[in-house]
Amino acid sequence: xxxxxxxxxxxxxxxxxxxxPAGSEPCKLRLYNSLTRNKEVFVPQRGRRVTxxxxxxxxxxxxxxxxxxxxxxxxxxxxxxxxxxxxxxFYCMNITDIDDKIIRRARQNHLFEQYxxxxxxPAQLLQDVRAALEPxxxxxxxxxxxxxxxxxxxxxxAVQLAAGxxxxxxxxxxxxxxxxxxxxxxxxxxxxVLSDWLDSTLGSxxxxxxxxxxxPRFWEAEFHKDxxxxxxxxxxxxxxxxxxxxxIVCFVQRIVDNGYGYVSGGSVxxxxxxxxxxxxxxxxxxxxEAVGDQQALQEGEGDLSVSAERLSEKRSPNDFALWKASxxxxxxxxxxxxxxxxxxxxxxxxxxGTLLGASMDIHGGGFDLRFPHHDNxxxxxxxxxENDCWVRYFLxxxxxxxxxxxxSKSLKNFITIKDALRxxxxxxxxxxxxxxxxxxxxxxxxxxMESALQYEKFMSEFFLTxxxxxxxxxxxxxxxxxxxxxxxxEAALNESFFAKKAAVHRALCDNVDTRSALEEMRALxxxxxxxxxxxxxxxxxxxxxxxxxxxxxxxRMLQIFGAIEQESALGFPxxxxxxxxxxxxxxxxxxxxxxxxxxxxxxxxxxxxVPEVLQLSDAxxxxxxxxxxxxxxxxxxxxxxxxxxxxETLLRERAEKRRVEEERRRKKEEAARKKQEQEAARLAKxxxxxxxxFLSEGDKYSRFDENGLPTHDTEGKELSKGQAKKLxxxxxxxxxxxxxxLQMAPCGGAP
Length: 751
Description:
With 751 residues, this protein is α/β, with parallel strands linked by helices.
């Protein structure tokens, strides 16, 4: 049976066509690649997996702020790629525990401790120190670097200053106890000078490999402690040169087999001329303009490896050591070319190649490692793998200066990480780095750290305010009451929230520009503060959900940057990093109850006019609770806000508040005193009758008229009309003042 016309019409109706929205091109992550000196779109070689090798420290001394510059910066980059962009990052770092600096320092320490253990007699010590000062003087004369020269001069002066009293004591035949005391002072002061001298004379006799391993083992442990204190994530895998010597030997052998290495004098050198002549290879990819810089090349070879004999073993001055034949007084390992040790550059190539293969996504290091270290790494690795893409993206962190100057022991501005952490927290140091580009020079100075402190305080206050708002009690029975209707202000703030998140994303896509990202976050907080202030002025509660969402986003971003050291639902954790106790959750219910009780007591005290209770209430807020790290903020017509804040911060705030109040009181007292003095001076002036006001000025005038006005100067000359007119005006003004004074004393007597 045929259907009705209406049914037929419904059967023919179909869904209208749908078109997807035009959308916009997603922002792509770009990283500044030292291989091109441009920002390049980051494309890992294997999907989301990222292989990353970072040059680690040479461990022979305390880690300093230059190390912090590099490792905090790479930690931030690593966290952003892993936690924000969601890459699967495999992060490898090395420890250089075989190196010319380590060998020399280990020998020096060993020989000095032996010397100290022999307890040289004062006269012998003085003789040895004088002998040690001779090569120091020669070294000083040959040094051109001004910083190094200044350091050596200071060392020479200090030792000579300490040697003088011992020489005087020996000549005077002072008691043995006094001689020993002065000898100990000299021994401590001359340690570096004696160590260098002992090494130059006895260093070749140090042959035990364990002597060369103790020093780096100690400083590596200190480095890891420093990194943990800075909240720098440990690497996924850590490689030590001493543990990879067999792999290094194999790596060097492959380079020789491929025709890019040659044996000379028991050492193996890289043939830069042959490598550069190869059609598929390029030498000096990072800093081609530095190729041939002999000073840089020799620094890369190491102090123990730049003798005339060693340099003569090379076919070209630009060639560099892959394997060094060990001399007496150096650690050694067996190899096909005889006993020796790895060259500096080959270490990273062999270890990274063993773990990451023929091509890695990212290689990182400090700016000063570009040439020759990283250029030589690239050359020898591509010679080994016979490719031209050992590293896809080379990232180099910027230099660090101290108050505008190069960090140097000679300038007495050498700051270890432990020194820095005694002045500022790990979060504050990290914020200082986040507020600067990772690839540019960072100046560690008072103004830099003040900017970081202000940023931390600004964000902390916002988090505390939002947490205080969220603690405001809700009716547990009114489940729907927590969802309030949004007005224009909430819609505008939410729109701004989305815009700022997009701006942060664009900043991070742009070479991980954390400085711009943090400024966008700061601007978002400023908008939230304006919104909350407007709500407070209108005696209305702000939107809890909206502010909680914004605070949660900001917390997450700071966690990604490593500025929040542990899991935190909202804002900076209370109690410091490493605290397992959720201090806020544990104590806040009790503090809230105390706050509400105090509010009730204050209300009753006001109603019954009991000022003593109000004073005690203020003392609880201003004196007692800050000592416990608790801040109470009273707002007229609104509930008191309770905030858990670092105790030291609160005590500083209290001290600053009292200083400001004291300054205000002092200025008020000073103004009152000045006003009183001015009134007293004016009253004293008012008392003088106009006829007497000039009579005391006998040094200016000699004759007066019947009213007391001067007519002649001291020389008997009549005053000019202009002078007389001026004096008449002063006279008339005094008449008015004196008349006012007489009115103040109607009975004619002085008040």
